[in-house]
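G., before I forget:
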Amino acid sequence: MTLQTETTDQQSAAHGFDNDNRQAATIGDAAREYLNRLRGGDMGSLPAILGLVVLFVVFSSLHDRFLTTYNMANLVVQAGSICVLAMGLVFVLLLGEIDLSAGVAGGASATITALVMIDHGWTWWAAALAGIAIGALIGLAIGSLVTLLGIPSFVVTLAFFLALQAVPLKLIGSGGSLRFDNEVLRGLSIKNVPVTAGWIAAVLIVIGFAAVQLFQYRTRATRGLVHKPLALVLVQVAVLAAIVLGLTALLSANRAPNPDIFTIAGIPWVAPVVIALLLFWTFVLTRTRFGRHLYAVGGNAEAARRAGINVTRIKITAFVIASSMAAVSGLLAASYTGKVSPGSGGGNVLLYAVGAAVIGGTSLFGGRGRAIDAVVGGLVIATIPNGLGLLNQASYINFLVTGGVLLLAASVDAVSRRRRSAAGV
Amino acid sequence: MTQPLLELRGVNKSFGAVHVLHDVDFAVYPGQVTALVGDNGAGKSTLVKIIAGIYGRDSGDYVFDGQDVTVHGPRDVAALGVEVVYQDLALCDNLDIVENMFLGREETRGIGLDEVTMEARARETLASLSVRTVKSVRQGVASLSGGQRQTVAIAKAVLWNSKIVLLDEPTAALGVAQTRQVLDLVRRLADRGLGVVLISHNMTDVFEVADRITALYLGRVAADVPAKDLTHSQVVELITAGRSGDLGITNVATATI
């Protein structure tokens, strides 16, 4: 570098590129940076956590059984299908698209799974795979119509929302229902992981997370790349350990209403299913080319196209993932209720899932969102019917609250987006 | 004079009945900034798109490094080492600098992305261009100023060991200080031995960095001369009237479309 450029760049040298190594060096710096991000409208999962606190305070003050371990385990099971549905929706929301049919696609898929088990005697995993394959096909059809014909996804999926409700109605018949009592599939909701195995898994998850984080820290620090301060890494590991081990402890306690007579303890099987999906999709979104391209298409489709990304393929894949996850969610919902009825997946289900993704921090405008958003948001949303159910409220209240929560989440999203573009974060 | 890195010879292009380019010769020399100037509708964008491989030619040769090459599309051109930085930048606001620079050409290790290699290479490239205004390579592109965004877009083009970089109006939307940054960067690219094409309306910018000036007038090359042989007003005349003194199209009257 010549002396002359040195002087012309003097002002910019104050924020020179060399500052790069000097990332937030202490916890204090990291906290300040986080506050700046919040002020700039990058809220992350904060609205979800606040929402969870508010709902817990309200419901626990209105009903004394809300905070029991029995109800908390119930909440985890109820949240399962919402989390999974929302996780699938994150993929289409990242593109700035919407899938209104995801709920009923789950209902239709669960109907197929139940039918092939009952009428054709398929084993549970083959039946489940058949249901998920139906979901994938639905996604393929939606994605193709959206990308190849150029119909707005809102319209295509609204049409599918209406049409797919015909599937269970035709196959089951009005007013009927199919039992969903396979030991494994039904067991996802009503059976628990043995307490010892639960503890082992929880400890392994904490160790695994710590190992990945520390390994990343070491690689980045030694190669002089951008990295978090070590203290922050340790705090994050500690927080995760507290949450995972705390929940495991909570769910490992005997929660039977009559603890002297029988024992209900352990993590419900649905939780490991959700966690496995969460880890898998988080890896796909953050560590693979497909994930990177998905964000790119959601952020600026034209830029992605010019960079040589096959935008059509990315979009179709996102719809396939959303509908396949909807099928998994439909199976979990059937597992919870023990039956599939023509109304499965209809009603509020989809709006709950959209609300979950958005309140968790996924933007309706595309380009921003994570798989974990769906899980955090799903817990918040599941708390609503859980608490209202305990309070024995009329169902009109449920509709009002759901609508209100969705609107609130969308408002937070829109406002934070405006602040982001103003602050340029 | 050294051999041109890229040369178009006698290029014609029509869109239906409209003959947009007439026997255009255009050359890009290594280590030089060639400014492409011309009024709106003179054919600058068409010429750039032909170089970029987006449009085909009706006739004429595309010569790269002394070799006649056939170009079927943007990918062929990119494979030759020609990168185009478009005016509307083509960056994703929701991704950071490293992610944008490697977009579509990510480094992978196994099934996962190799973030470490990508970040190190992005940092190297930015440092080699003496880009010192970016706080962190992991900064989101949305938080960058116009000049910084332009810088990232140019660095993205340079990352792939390209030999020629075409810049379409790189300073059009920038303020004084940011224009300064980008022009410095343009100069540095040429000093590294790249062939740089600068498309610009701004004569001050052109005279500041260009070694050669190619002026287009109604689809014809009005002049292709070293910048030091021209004055500001001569270039304006070439752009608006197609000739200036001895320079330019000899019979402007016939040079209609």
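The radius of gyration of chain B is 19 Å. Helices of chain B lie at 44-52, 74-80, 97-101, 115-128, 146-158, 176-191, 203-209, 232-241.

More on Monday.
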